[in-house]
């Protein structure tokens, strides 16, 4: 089988995780990494940095590659890079990568640009938007929805029919009761229990989770 060639955007720890998934999945051939902050030539898990994202048009022409995945753990960071890439090359396509040890149920829809790590489980009838990240051992229970650029941290688990809004992060080990809604651009802190719905643009944590503060879209949380 001829593998499709792709780029990875971002050369940090998330790139190493993405490389492991891509190598195990065996569907894509990594031609290199674009990173605006690392020098060209540096290797990340054996793959070279080709240049900054700003030079995507030229690098894409040189390698004749028009596909890739963004390996940036911060949800808003991923969103910003997608906008940057769309401005540079509107026809650039994003691929979803999925570790072979992830479990995906029936009738699940997954948008482009997602990263699904080992041991993540997505039950039946879920919808996962573009550029989401499901970390290892996270679990999205049946009929749930993840908005674009949202994430489930390691071991974060939802009950059924949960909605996670655009760009929101459910951090490591948090639990979300069934039918709860988490707004957009919010962060559910590590090991929290979501009993009440969560609004837009807030940080919540604790058992049960309480609103701790408002947050701006680009406030760091990792
Ligand atoms: C929500 C989060 C961003 C808050 O972190 P923070 O901004 O540094 O914390 P704050 O400044 O708001 O508050 C600090 C206080 O709140 C407490 N606190 C922070 N997060 C908490 C949580 N999830 N549950 C309970 N208490 C928490 C701290 O113990 C600290 O208390 P202290 O002042 O008595 O020592 C952080 O808890 C979190 O979940 N980060 C994401 C981690 C993650 O998912 N990593 C995965 C990597 S793959």
Task: Report a brief summary of the structure.
By secondary structure, the protein is of the alpha/beta class.
What does it look like?
By secondary structure, this protein is an alpha/beta fold. It folds into 2 domains: 4-94, Rossmann fold, CATH 3.40.50; 97-210, Hexapeptide repeat proteins (UDP N-Acetylglucosamine Acyltransferase, domain 1). Helix content is 16%, strand content 31%. The chain is built from 3 helices and 25 strands. The chain has helices at residues 13-25, 56-63, 75-88; strands at residues 4-9, 28-34, 43-44, 47-51, 67-70, 93-94, 97-98, 103-104, 109-110, 115-116, 121-122, 127-128, 133-134, 139-140, 145-146, 151-152, 157-158, 163-164, 169-170, 175-176, 181-182, 187-188, 193-194, 202-205, 210-214. The strands form 5 sheets. Strands 7-10-13-16-19-22-24-25 form an 8-stranded mixed β-sheet, covered by helices on one side. A 6-stranded mixed β-sheet has the order 3-4-2-1-5-6. Strands 9-12-15-18-21 form a 5-stranded parallel β-sheet, with no helix packed on it. Helix 3 links the parallel strand 5 (67-70) and strand 6. The longest helix has 14 residues, at 75-88. The N and C termini lie far apart (38 Å). The model has no long low-confidence stretch (mean pLDDT 98). The site of coenzyme A has 16 residues, from strand 24.
């Amino acid at each position: 089988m001829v593998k499709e060639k792709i780029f990875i955007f971002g050369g940090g720890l998330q790139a190493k995780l993405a490389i492991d998934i891509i190598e195990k999945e065996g569907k894509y051939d990594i031609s290199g990494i674009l990173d605006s902050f690392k020098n060209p030539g540096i290797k990340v898990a054996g793959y070279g940095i080709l240049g900054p994202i700003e030079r995507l048009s030229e690098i894409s022409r040189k390698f004749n590659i028009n596909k890739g995945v963004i390996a940036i753990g911060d949800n808003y960071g991923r969103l910003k890079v997608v906008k940057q890439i769309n401005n540079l090359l509107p026809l650039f396509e994003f691929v979803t990568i999925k570790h072979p040890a992830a479990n995906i149920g029936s009738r699940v829809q997954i948008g482009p640009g997602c990263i699904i790590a080992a041991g993540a489980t997505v039950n039946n009838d879920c919808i996962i938007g573009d550029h989401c990240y499901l970390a290892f051992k996270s679990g999205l229970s049946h009929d749930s929805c993840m908005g674009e650029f949202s994430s489930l941290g390691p071991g974060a688990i939802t009950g059924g029919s949960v909605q996670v809004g655009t760009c929101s992060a459910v951090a490591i080990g948090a639990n979300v009761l069934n039918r709860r809604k988490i707004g957009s651009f919010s962060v559910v802190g590590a090991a929290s229990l979501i009993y009440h719905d969560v609004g837009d643009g807030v940080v919540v944590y604790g058992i049960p989770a309480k609103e701790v503060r408002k947050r701006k879209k680009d406030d760091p949380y990792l």
